[in-house]
Design brief:
The complex is a heterodimer of chains A (about 45) and B (about 500).
Chain A: E1 15-22, E2 39-42
Chain B: E1 4-8, E2 15-22, E3 27-34, E4 40-43, E5 62-66, E6 74-75, E7 123-132, E8 138-145, E9 148-150, E10 153-154, E11 160-166, E12 171-174, H1 182-185, H2 201-207, E13 215-219, E14 227-232, E15 234-236, E16 240-248, E17 265-268, E18 270-275, E19 283-286, E20 290-294, E21 301-304, H3 305-315, E22 318-320, E23 325-329, E24 338-343, E25 348-352, E26 357-359, E27 366-369, E28 371-374, E29 379-381, H4 383-386, E30 389-394, E31 399-405, E32 414-416, E33 425-426, E34 464-465, E35 475-484, E36 489-498, H5 502-505
Parallel strand pairs in B: 3-12, 4-11, 16-33, 20-29, 21-28
Antiparallel strand pairs in B: 1-5, 2-3, 2-9, 4-12, 5-6, 7-8, 8-11, 9-10, 13-14, 13-30, 15-32, 16-31, 17-20, 18-19, 18-24, 22-23, 23-27, 24-25, 26-27, 30-31, 34-35, 35-36
The chains are: A mainly beta (about 45), B mainly beta (about 500).
Chain lengths: ~45, ~500
């Protein structure tokens, strides 16, 4: 594979990859929002 | 009036994701970053598990509270998503009890799918792909190649699979060892199929010359941060405190025919606790050597059931059959609290106990201990450990270096990894690695070794709240452990900043 690294890291012999941290009670509802979402829901 | 209320657990899950652009024209897909597996795969747009209607998806985030229970225990049913791959051994047991059932449909719009028919550059290599994970999710499909970029890094040429059938909501970017690739150690390989390894993501970076060593540093960042970083080919000395110590990756599957390690397991030589700042409050739970998997694809941590019981007895947690986890009082901010201390071979990493708590929002101040029992005689240290630990995975030398993470943004001091990890020290216990499974014996003294050396562990932990706004409520824990033995003496001082807002420092998966 030909790796064309981002101009920011070209020829630096390292590659910096930022990853997102997603929070939620399920993959479907996960988001970047780290605030506690607490809800007491009487059915 | 109908005896129960629905309580949504606080928002504590976390998993690490990156966004890929695949095909021509590019289609965006988000995948989970996973050191516990080694294949890249994305969900195909024709996956029958994808629900056409949103209401089909069953969201297990609501919990039932049994009101007539004096403890008002919040019943929670959630599945721990652990992406360490199931390996072809007779011992492979589902390390996690999963409530996800494959009959559930999933919402595939959340993280995107890849439609091969809409890419003019997709090439299938007509090889079957199949993988199963420790939480009973699976993916199967076909291997192929296409235009591919991650953030703005062009990684075209990297083989990836398109899963036309999967019950996992999100695809996976496995960055583990080549031996863990499903083409080599996958459980689906029929005897006829010849197993082989291929160049996965870290190896593609190395072979293309983008990095000098097949090694990377994982900085998971503080527990409530929005992003972390993986530095491929380098180490950032600004992201850890104290010294980086190096230990070997061990092979727990040699008896299964794997002559080299295929997963990131190292030897844990002792587990203990400390209470507050006092040195005399150090307790050794065990000094039995136990294999530990350092897995970014697992959210909480897992230990053999008997060890979790020892820890629970020590910290006042009790097992709740309702949860299937241990529960305990939530540690209040600034309360003098315990730490869990890991001895990796003469160097110690300690985490606040609150970092291992999952906060429910039941009004009875109940917290789940985010160290869960498992039947495997091994330990998985997941995100709630990695959030406080800087880990360098060196795939070329089959070593792992670790230190306390420093998330106080002290700037970047990047060194290229070329042959070995710069500034890392070989751990004093580097060579005394795990060799065979033993029953876990309680007690011992991990804080000083036996007769032949005067290694002693002195802990001075000062928990002090800092008032500055950016670190409001932060605690500074300085643990200094001093080693002196016949050959050399080295003083390790590691300062760790950990947020007491434990509610966001631990996570659980659906």
């Amino acid at each position: 594979a030909s790796i064309a690294s981002p101009s920011s890291a070209t020829n630096k012999d390292y590659i910096k990859v930022n990853f997102q941290k997603k929070y939620g009670n399920s993959f479907e509802s996960a988001s970047n929002d780290t605030k506690d979402k607490t809800r007491l829901v009487a059915r | 009036d109908n005896d129960y209320e629905l309580v949504e657990l606080t928002n504590q899950n976390s998993f690490y994701s990156v966004e890929l652009d695949i095909g021509t024209p590019p289609q965006k897909v988000t995948v989970l970053v996973d050191t516990g597996s080694s294949d890249l795969w994305v969900t195909g747009s024709n996956n029958p598990y994808c629900s056409t209607k949103k209401k089909d998806t069953i969201d297990s985030s609501f919990k039932q509270v049994n009101k007539d229970n004096s403890a008002s225990v919040v019943e929670s049913v959630f599945t721990e998503i652990s992406y360490d791959t199931t390996i072809v051994t007779s011992e492979a047991t589902a390390t996690l009890d999963s409530t996800a059932s494959t009959s559930q449909t999933i919402d595939c719009t959340a993280y995107g799918t890849f439609d091969t028919s809409k890419s003019s550059t997709f090439e299938s290599n007509k090889t079957e792909f199949s993988i199963t994970y420790g939480d009973s999710t699976f993916a199967s499909g076909t291997w192929g190649r296409d235009q591919l970029s991650l953030n703005d890094l062009n990684i075209t040429g990297l083989s990836f699979a398109v899963a036309n059938e999967t019950n996992s909501t999100v695809g996976v970017l496995g960055i583990g060892l080549p031996g863990l690739e499903s083409t080599y150690s996958g459980i689906s390989l029929s005897s006829a199929q010849k197993s082989y390894t291929y160049n996965n993501f870290p190896m593609v970076l190395k072979n293309s010359g983008a990095i000098k060593s097949t090694a990377y540093s994982l900085f998971a960042n503080s527990s409530d941060s929005k992003h972390g970083t993986i530095l491929f080919g380098a180490v950032d000395h600004g992201k850890y405190a104290g010294d980086l110590y190096t230990i070997p990756i061990i092979n727990t599957l040699e008896h299964r025919g794997y002559k080299d390690p295929i997963q990131f397991q190292v030897t844990l030589q002792g587990v203990g606790t400390s209470k507050g700042d006092k040195e005399e409050n150090l307790t050794t739970l065990t000094t039995t050597k136990i294999p530990v998997l350092l897995d970014s694809g697992t959210t909480i941590s897992y230990m053999p059931a008997e060890l979790v019981q020892m820890l629970a007895d020590q910290v006042g947690a009790t097992y709740s059959p309702v949860y299937g986890y241990y529960i305990m009082d939530c540690i209040q901010e600034m309360e003098q609290e315990s730490s869990v201390i890991f001895d990796f071979g003469g160097f110690y990493l300690s985490n606040w106990l609150s970092d291992f708590q999952l906060v429910t929002d039941s009004r009875s101040n109940i917290c789940i201990l985010g160290i869960a029992p498992q039947s495997d005689p091994t330990i998985i240290l997941g995100d709630n450990f990695l959030a406080n630990t800087y880990v360098v995975y060196d795939l070329d030398n089959m070593e792992i270096s670790m230190a306390h993470a420093n998330s106080s943004d002290d700037g970047e001091y990047v060194d290229i990894i070329d042959g070995s990890v710069p500034s890392a020290l070989k751990a004093p216990g580097y060579s005394s690695t795990w060799s065979t499974y033993e029953s876990i014996v309680s007690g011992g003294n991990m804080f000083s070794t036996a007769s032949n050396s005067s290694t002693s562990y002195s802990v001075s932990m000062s928990h002090s709240a800092t008032s500055s706004s950016s670190f409001k409520g932060q605690k500074i824990q300085t643990s200094t452990s001093t080693f002196s033995n016949s050959k050399s003496s080295s003083t390790i001082s590691s300062t760790r900043i950990s947020s007491p807002t434990s509610s966001s420092s631990t996570r659980k998966e659906n």
